[in-house]
Amino acid sequence: MPEGGTGEAIEPVTELGDGGAPRLPRARVVPLSTPPSTYTAAVERYLTGAGIARSSARISRISLTTWGWMLAGEPAPAGPARRGAKPPAFPITCTDDSSLPEVLAELAAARADEMDADTVNRELSIARQAIGWWQRQGWIAVDPTIGIERRPAPPDRTKALANNQIAALWRLDVALREKTQWRML
Question: Which pTM was predicted?
Answer without folding.
Answer: 0.67
